[in-house]
Amino acid sequence: MAIYLDSAATTCPSETCIQSMTEAMRGHFGNPSSLHSVGLDAQLVMDRARKQIAASLGCESAEILFTSGATESNHLAIRGAAMKYGKRLRRVITTTVEHASVRGAFDMLEEQGFEVIRIAPGPDGSYTADQVMESVNENTCLISMMMVNNETGAILPVQEIFTRVKRDYPQVITHCDAVQGYMKLPVQPEKMHADLLTVSGHKVHACKGIGALYHKKGVRLASLMKGGEQEQGIRPGTESVPLIAGFGAAVEELRKTIPSRGEYISALRSECIRALSALDGIAIQSPEEGSPYILSFSVKGLRSETMLHFLAEKGVSVSSGSACSKGKQSGVLQQFGIKQDLADSTLRVSFCMDNTAEDMHALAAYLEEAQAKLVHKR
Amino acid sequence: MKEIILVKYGEMALKGMNRSTFEDVLLRNIRFRLKKIGKFSYAKAQSTIYITPETESDEERDELLNAAMLRLKKIFGIAALCRALTCEKDFQNIAERAVPYLQDTLTAAKTFKVEAKRADKAFPMKSPQICAELGGILLQNYPHLKVDVNHPDVTVTVEIRDVNAYVHAAKEKGAGGLPVGTAGNAMLLLSGGIDSPVAAYMMAKRGLRISACHFASPPYTSDRARMKVEQLCEKLTPWCGSMAFYCIPFTEIQEELQRNCPEEFFTILMRRLMMEIACRIAEKENCGAVITGESLGQVASQTLPAIACTDAVATMPVLRPLIGMDKVEIINISRTIDTYETSIQPYEDCCTVFTPRHPKLRPVLAEIEEAQKEVDFAPMIERAIENAEMKVFAQHVSENQNL
Questions:
Q1: Which of A255, A290, A315 marks a domain boundary?
Q2: What number is the ipTM of this complex?
Q3: I need a surface site. Which of A142, A256, B146, B238 has the fewest CB within 10 A?
Q4: Does one domain contain both A132 and A186?
């Protein structure tokens, strides 16, 4: 029996998504930029998806740019905004717990001579507005902060921080990587005071290779590539109509059930914690009030990778840290104050609606078996 | 938490004996616009409409209020509107509940002031006293704030009215004008450019209910050009209400003009034929006027002599709300009503195909009439009207997709 507990890495495309992708490929293959009716037809499919994504974020269609995924969205947002707004304002701000793609974008800015401030969480692993405001000054052009951490599920107080930033330094452009929050928690860029916001398709039961960037009307972005006039000229390249259609359909299906799914998943997570706490040597790393969709814990004395392979043999898919680092540690856990030896043995389980309470008990049982069978580190 | 929306009328409050007619139309428009979002109850008193969302859940109420505010801001006849907290008429109660209610607004602000409106003069505290005491309490709770009575970021208003007291901090300007439907109907000539949607917006603002007609010349103009115009109609419905839209086949007439009329008269003759057809359709739709987006001197067909030649065929008043406006001013309005981006999509429309190299700037009516006699347009006009396609754009259809 296969148990998939790695929905934060990727999700299975929903039936609705597959259906509308197939439809788009079969019936609407045109190039949306073509002037003939085949092209127009493809554009209409894309327009509809754009409206669906816009509706899910409470914004206008024109504020949505489709990209190849979250990595591109993050780079476009961070580097694109820094290019437009960073000619004189040379300070950019981020945190030390961001996703690799955000870290990468800031590393590139650093090479270009920007002063990059990377804020670490406080001793209790959380961020406060006061702490962030210490780094913001009149020379700052950009701040980027993730909404939900992908490794621990910690929720960062983005709205509170961006409100303060915008109040005291209105020139600062605010970007939020909301990939792990989207379709799980309410995400409203306007309410969050976010000028730019990244979402991804394959984390919300759409396909890989599609993402979107919300960019507030009036906020300028330099494009990373020069080419055609697609996506307002900001993101040239013929749009992938099937991926876009599937993304729209998947989101349309999910967006009305955020509260009800949240309840189910919260119960599931509590069940998981209950089952795990019956075992010895388990330390929960995720904060209590974090996203219910992610649970990070350590199995003392057993390396993550060993455990991961053991579970995989049993048909249980979990991950160590985040999937993007291919098993390598990102250092994010240590940033949250988790000690090295515990970080070495951390597992991340993440949920979707297909998971059941039985899955949680099966996981606990396998862990117990592993603890009995495997040789512990000294 | 009991939160409602207060809607204040503008100019309507100055009306005399017929004021209630205006109020009724406004209330009807509001009810119609909010019907699709959820359940609300309505009351009116003292030049204000009170809109209460009918729900027990705080989250749902917040959503209802948000959605309602967005729509209300586009309803003509409303001068100002705001979300407000309903309190008992007791200062203690007001102060206690105002502090948490204003949290989001006040954390985002640097400076503030408090205003009091004491409609109920029996309230024991005078306005300045309310302001001073509530201001003090807010300062204690939000120590980062400073008071600025001249240019505050946020003005907190306390209204003591007959039944309840209300606290609000984010009064927003309404769309102004008079309720759509109080001034009758009019037919808009909608080309797809920047100007005509703005003209529709401006006349709807004065209470006209708008219908639109568009001239299409396939294959000289494309499906996308027509879709662009339909999109413009959709974008106008939140302001103008439901719209009847006529798409009139114009190819035959344009081809005939191109073949048999002097090139320099092409635009003028075309405008005259359009006007004639528009007037005929307007009569069918019970309209009392035709609206165009012309601005004096903007292009050759918009000089005074050219306008005179076009008007000569009109059978009803032609309203030109943009006549005295600069292009920049028009563009600014089109940006506010969000039609600009759609208008500038680069598809050829019927006014730009066959443009003469040197159009006549000062046409003489007699000459034009003479030139028009060369061809018998009457049967073509009949055919165009007969084959016009009508479509209704209902306001809630276009909006729901955006919610």
A1: A255
A2: 0.72
A3: A256
A4: yes
